Input
Amino acid sequence: MGAEIKGAIEYSKGLEGVIAALSSISYIDGSQGKLVYRGIPIEMLAKYSNYEETAYLLLYGELPTKEALENFTQQMKTFRILPKRVEDCIRELPPNPHPMDILKVAVAHTALYDPDRLRCCREGVMSKVIRIIAQIPTMIAYYHRARTGQDIVPPDPDLGHAANFLYMLHGKKPDKEEARIFDVALVLHAEHGLNASTFAAMVTASTLSDINSAIVSAIGTLKGPLHGGANERVLKMLDEIGTPDKAEEYVLNALSEKRRIMGFGHRVYKTYDPRARILKEYAEYLSNKYNDRRYIEIGERIEKIMIRELGKKGIFPNVDFYSGIVYQFLGIPRDLFTPVFAMARSVGWAAHVCEYVQNNRIFRPRAYYTGPDYVEYVPIDKRR
Output
């Protein structure tokens, strides 16, 4: 005991590199810039799949048959509708809190009206999981409409998961191109191994708590600025820079002052994030479509400078760098970027929870004690 650490101890700050679970859900090769869901490269899913099919793949471990996908998609559409009391609660919530706090409240509230609420994660109630994944977009869109004084737009059963969210958010159906781009963005954000929010969900589930509690834990973790919300701060940085010709001075000054350049570097990837490559193409496309290239030109200039300065250290664009530009063109308010991240990642959280609890062991890491060996208790009337 005692403050002095004697001899070597096994310690990994932040659990970095520690294997805490066995999983068949996704695989990341950080040195090669590869990401696969259930063995399928993310590039193929982005090109050929959609969010519903990807969600099925992550939850059930295989691509669905046509009939299975139709049934799953219909189930997602049916579960979009919120209980009336949850809808009323969202309407009455104050308009100024962070939307992630609202999302925590809404997900927790729906548990009160869940017909399977008394069943724990380990029982594998897939309907509970699908219901939460389907309802989170409704919660986000309803709150945004309510806080801006607009009428709430009910879900449209004729629209897919991505298109329906944009419809509920804006009150008009998106064009097919933009719905598809948003769909791909959701696919790219759906899963990413044992990141902080996924691990938080698993820790909660390992106690055999309910899936709503696990998802609330994940949402609270994602809210933290070191995990979610970087794409919002990327746009703030681009606004601050203003024009491409000011990018070099800004970046070099930031690096000399040891300030972070948002959207660069990753705990796992030491090369270009494969999701960033795909989103960059869409950011370029939307910039041209709307004849507004300010953000993409500043972003590309920053990318060149950062790779020149820090590429040898494994610092490259991550998924957040170009996703914010994409969301901006899709008309998504900046403070909803992190809730949209949660909307996409909810299936990854749920997939890991369902997988882990099938061979469950409650998480209980240890801490190495560095305090004093012994301290005399002094009665309060004798303390100085």
